[in-house]
Automatic annotation (TrEMBL):
Gene3D superfamilies named in the record: Beta Polymerase, domain 2 (3.30.460.10), cca-adding enzyme, domain 2 (1.10.3090.10)
Leading EC class: transferase
Cofactor: Mg(2+)
Sequence intervals crossing the membrane: none
NCBIfam families registered for this protein in UniProt: HDIG (TIGR00277), tRNA_CCA_actino (TIGR02692)
Name used for this protein in its record: CCA tRNA nucleotidyltransferase
UniProt xrefs under InterPro entries: HD/PDEase_dom (IPR003607), HD_domain (IPR006674), HDIG_dom (IPR006675), NT_sf (IPR043519), PolA_pol_head_dom (IPR002646), PolyA_RNA-bd (IPR032828), tRNA_adenylyltransferase (IPR014065), tRNA_CCA-adding_enzyme (IPR050124)
Molecular function terms, GO-annotated: CCA tRNA nucleotidyltransferase activity
Keywords attached to this entry: ATP-binding, Magnesium, Metal-binding, Nucleotide-binding, Nucleotidyltransferase, RNA repair, RNA-binding, Transferase, tRNA processing
EC number: 2.7.7.72
Domain HD positions: 274-393
Matches recorded under SMART domains: HDc
Amino acid sequence: MVPTPPRPDDSSSRAELQRRAVAQLAPVLPMLQELGSLFAGAGAGHELALVGGPVRDAFLGRASSDLDLTTSARPEQIEALLKPWADTTWDIGRDFGTIGARKGDAIVEVTTYRADAYDRQTRKPIVSFGDSLTDDLVRRDFTVNAMALRLPDLEFVDPYDGMGALAARTLMTPSAPEVSFGDDPLRMMRAARFAAQLGFTVDQRARAAMTELAPSIEMISAERVHDELVKLMLAPDPRAGLTLLVDTGIADHVLPELPALRLEVDEHHRHKDVYEHSLIVLEQAMALEGERVVPGLAEPELVPGPDLVLRLAALLHDIGKPATRRFERQGGVSFHHHEMVGAKLVRKRLRELRFDKDTIKAVSRLTELHLRFHGYGGPGVPTSRTADDIDSPWTDSAVRRYITDAGPLLSRLHLLTRSDCTTRNRRKAAALAAAYDSLEVRIAALREQEELDAVRPELNGNQIAETLGIKPGPVLGRAYKHLLAFRLDAGPVGEDAARAELLRWWADQPERLDQS
C-alpha cells in the first residue's frame, strides 16, 4: 500500500514535506543539482526542474526510475549542454523538445517547456515551445503530476495544488477536465491506471468529463491504449482501474467484452454475476502469484508476479458467456461451449489491442482450457453436468492429455482453475480444492514417471515412414498424431507395441487399402 502523505495544513508543513521528498531523492540529488548548475551557469541562464512522476513519487515515498526534467532551453541548447557532461546523448524526440542522456547508470530526459495546442480531429499535439514553468505544468495530465522541483536550489513549485490532491489521494486536472481530456483522451486511460497503481480516486468533475468524452478514446491509437492497459493490469489493484473504465463507459470502446459481462440476473433464472465473478477471479489469481507448494513436487512451483498472461486470462476467461447464454426450461441457465467462443473473442480483442502473438496464444489457450478440470472428480466430490461442479474421475490417459494440452501453461492453468472457484458454498469450495489437490498429485507423479513435459510418440517420423513404406506428407502426419494419441492413452509401451499399433491403424487406412 502506498503511504498517504499528511495534508499541507496538518502539523507537517509544506517545508517538511519538501524535506521528505528531498530525502527520497537523495541518491540522485547531487547529479540533479549538478545538472541544474550546468543549465543555469556559464552564461546559459536556463531554468531546469525535475517534474512530474519523480516528484509525485518522492512525496509518496516510492522509488522512481524516471528522471524527467523540463527546461527553458531549446532542444539544440539542451543537446549542447548535455554532450560534454554525459557519457552519451540521443535524440529521442527533438521535434517534441526532448533530448536523452546517460551518465553512469543514470538516464535523464530533458524537455523544453511546452505550450502545446491540440488538433481536435487527430488528437496530435501542435508542438509549441514555452518560456514558463507554470504554463508547462498546466498542460500536464493531473495536478499530482504538475509539481516540480527547481534545480539546483530545490525550490518546490506547485501552482495547481498537486500536494493537496496528493494528500487527498485524488486525481484532478490542472485545467478544466473536459479541456484536458479533450486535448488528449488517453489521459482518461491514465486516470484508470493511476487508480490501479496508486490507489487514487478520480475527482467528480473529472469523472463526469470521462463519462461524457468516453467515445473520444477511439481516436487514440491501439498501441497507446495497449500500453496503458498493460500498466493497469500489472498494477497492485487492477480492479480499481477496470471498474473506473467500465463505470465511465470507456471500456465500451477499448474492451467491450468486459462490460458485456454485466448480464441481467433474472429472478427466475438465477446465476452468478459474471462481471463480478471475473473481477474476483482476477484478484484470487493475483493472490496465488509467486511460489506455491505443490503436493508431490520437491520444489515449489513458481509463477512470478505480476504475470500479465495469468491476469488477462483470469479477467477474460468467461467473455464467451454473453454469446452462449441460454435459459433452460427447468429454470436454470447454461453457457454451453463458452470457453471455445471465449477463446475466439480473446484472440480477436487482443489482436485489435496490438498484443504480441505469444500473449494472444497463451491467453486464448488458457481461456479454452479453463473448464477442462470440471470433468475431474474423486471420492466425496459432488457429481454434476454443470460447469460449477465436477463429474467423474479421470484415467491416467486423461491426466496425460491435460498436461500435454496445457504444455508450458500448466502452472498458470493450475492457478486460473483454482481461482475460478468463487462459490460461497464452503462444502463445494472445499470439495473442489480437494479434487484439484488430488489432480496435482497425480500430475506430479505422472510427470516424474513419464517425463510428460516432452512427450512424443515412441516412434519418430523416420521410423514411421520406414515401417509403413511411405514418404513425408499428410499421411505421415496423421500416423504421427495417431501414435501420439496412443502414447497418451496407453502410457510408455515400448517401440514394439507402438509399431504393432501403427500397423493395426495402417491396415484400416484408405491409402493402405488403395495399395493392396
